[in-house]
Design brief:
4-stranded antiparallel β-sheet, 15 helices
Length: 414
């Protein structure tokens, strides 16, 4: 068993690279459904968010190249220079830090834990997980919850959506007299609207490809739904446009924005694109009167309260280290499970065969006597196997583990 992580995040790749690695849920499911096509790749979970795309995999020894091939096929071509790789215990530590919000652009942000849960759920539903990743992800999710319970790492932390709103408020000198158009009606868009209202925004317009979703979101926030096709046309009087759709392509293009600016009579406009892949063509930012920010431009807001969160992060790292060490200790014994199961099964078959033989010669045994015979032979088998099993377990993770495994297989033909 070999545990491996291959991926990239906000520290290794800019947004123009990350968006090419972004994998939608349908493509993800299709990829996991074909996991058996990759020799030596037995389990996999793919985590794809706005700030990272990672594959967590279990491979046979010497088959690690299958992880690269799987990711390459899933993405449609990868540039290896942006990728990082972790093996075995480093994989556990990394996943636990991700789930705890320690590896996020915004330390302590809470959305990543639900994204880890969803990634694991998708992989499990596709039957792409087994004992190793089931154990690893369940423990990581529990560790993420523990960190949020036992530390204050999430206290006063900001999310991507709140950072976007704070950036707008800082650049525009407040939002109480501003009106905003939001493209998208998903979780991120709804969180953004919540933060806008907290900053006193007077009007919020919501545009979505599915108008019923825009209407539903607008009704919850006291905003107004607008038809997708007419949103930019009616944006002549808004101050800010925030985009957070799941579109795989640009939804706001330069020619559309030039037409919009012509209708604004010289009034500038503020774009914040928090989608990955990006919603706004970068060329839009070059148009006179347009100020464009994307998710990588939120760094200045992220610094706010960072020092306090870093102190809590030290406590969180201790929890992560403890829990990761515990799960890796358990993994030491998993590689011996098939051998131990074969040994127990072989012993049980011998026991049952001998009971059948003796039973034919002792036909006058009562039911109670047969139970006593059964219990006695079970105890004999357990006691005979106890010492070999203990030796095998004790060798796990040591230089002697291969010796004991091979010896056991040779001695018992298991």
């Amino acid at each position: 068993m070999h545990l491996k992580i291959l991926g990239l995040n906000h520290t290794t790749a800019p947004i123009e690279v990350r968006e090419k690695f972004s994998v939608d849920k349908d493509a993800l499911r299709r990829g996991l459904d074909n996991l058996d096509d990759y020799d030596g790749l037995s389990e996999a979970v793919v985590l794809s968010t706005c700030n990272r795309t990672e594959i967590y995999a279990v491979t046979a020894e010497g088959c690690e190249v299958a992880v690269h091939q799987f990711l390459n096929d899933l993405i449609g071509g990868i540039d290896e220079k942006f990728l990082y790789e972790y093996d075995d215990e480093h994989c556990a530590i990394h996943l636990f830090e991700v789930a705890a919000g320690l590896d996020s652009l915004i330390v302590g942000e809470g959305q990543i834990l639900s994204q880890v849960k969803e990634a694991y759920s998708i992989a499990k539903a596709a039957q792409a997980t087994g004992t190793i990743l089931n154990t690893l992800f369940n423990r990581a999710i529990a560790a993420g919850k523990r960190v949020r319970t036992e530390t204050r790492i999430a206290y006063n932390s900001v999310s991507v959506s709140s950072a976007a709103v704070e950036l707008a408020a800082r650049k525009l000198g407040g939002l109480s007299d501003k009106s905003v158009l939001i493209f998208g009606a998903g979780k991120m868009a709804q969180l953004t609207a919540k933060h806008l209202l907290a900053h006193g925004v007077k009007k919020i317009f919501v545009a979505n490809h599915h108008i019923e979703r825009a209407i539903e979101m607008a009704s919850r926030i006291g905003g107004l739904a607008v038809a997708w096709e007419e949103a930019l046309i009616g944006a002549a009087h808004v101050d800010i446009i925030i985009t957070s759709t799941g579109a795989p392509h640009y939804v706001i293009k330069p020619w559309q924005t030039q037409q919009l600016m012509a209708r604004r009579n010289g009034r500038g406009i503020f774009f914040i694109d928090i989608a990955v892949p990006r919603d706004v063509d970068p060329e839009v930012g070059k148009i006179k009167g347009v100020t464009l920010y994307n998710i990588d431009d939120l760094e200045s807001v992220v610094e706010k309260n960072l020092q306090a969160r870093q102190r809590e992060a030290l406590l969180a790292k201790k929890i992560v280290a403890e829990d990761a060490a515990a799960v890796m200790e358990r993994f030491k014994y998993l590689k011996f499970r098939p051998l131990m199961a074969n040994l127990s099964e072989r012993a049980e078959k011998i026991r049952l065969r001998e009971i059948r033989r003796v039973s034919s010669k002792l036909s006058d045994l009562t039911d109670d006597e047969r139970k006593i015979l059964d219990q006695m032979t079970r105890r004999i088998v357990r006691k005979l196997l106890r010492l070999p099993m203990m030796k095998l377990n004790a060798s796990a993770g040591t230089d002697a583990e291969n010796f004991y495994a091979q010896a056991m297989q040779a001695l018992f033909n298991a």
